[in-house]
């Protein structure tokens, strides 16, 4: 008995065949584009709503501006009307008061007249130019060839090193006329001690070693100032020097009491030096140059003021230069704030008035102060060699006097 085959519907055969055919060809039926259509419509609706809202906001802003402008015009008109009504109803303004009579002039009113400034060296500093070290000039010129002879200023703070530099530049000429025969400070720093020579270099010389000059080839010209006036200058501009320990040191009586001016001098931020007082500082610093065996010059600040031409002529000749026939004086302020100079400074006219007064020289010093200065600073041969010695009794009498023994004018303004 034979088996029977399965029955297949006629409608099933074409569908199965078509499905097999599509599978063999790898084709799929495309999806409906409804999602893209919905996205486009949504974006357009959002943009339309945004534009409509912006138009409405602009319309409201314009309406608000118009309302505000109208209100301002209305208020202005109201104020104008009110002011006009008040003016029409108010009484006329009163007439201005008569001018007050001027007081009669005071008869015989004293008129201050400034006394002329004298160019003569005050007699309490002696006569003539005083320079220490002129006997070393020949040795210096023999040691150095003409084209490498150079000089540079040195000195303590407030001694006039910038004035010396200006006067030399204006009045001293060298044979080659290159202008390279002077530096604005010695290589070890013009305010640093001489013992730093060769061991320390000022900022302008801190380049390559082969470009550094030989320190011994430069003639230092040291400016020294009267210790009694120098201490008062330090009270006005102390720079890196610290010595104010008493209330009187921060008043017009500075530096009294001199004995209590223990001094800390920071030549460099990490290299402080200590001195028992300002006179000890003056004696020690200048003493290094005074006791040096190398060529050097020590000149007076006072000679730069009153004997400028003769002083510059001798310094210029010593270093191998030629003084100009027509001397030019430095009348302006020599200190430059860009180089760290702060505080009050004097031009030449003010300096002549200030330092030409013997009363101002000893003002505010006590007997103990003056005796201490003579004992400490006077222990240096430089004190008497430069004419800074004084009699204590005479100094007290002059300093306490109301009468001004001066070679200048009224000092009350300075």
UniProtKB/TrEMBL annotation:
Transmembrane segments: 31-51
InterPro entries listed in its UniProt record: P-loop_NTPase (IPR027417)
Bias-annotated ranges (Pro residues): 90-107
Region (Disordered): 1-28, 87-119
Keyword Magnesium: no
Polar residues bias spans: 1-14
Keyword Transmembrane helix found: yes
Keyword entries, A-Z: Membrane, Transmembrane, Transmembrane helix
Superkingdom of this protein's organism: Eukaryota
Protein name, per record: Sulfotransferase domain-containing protein
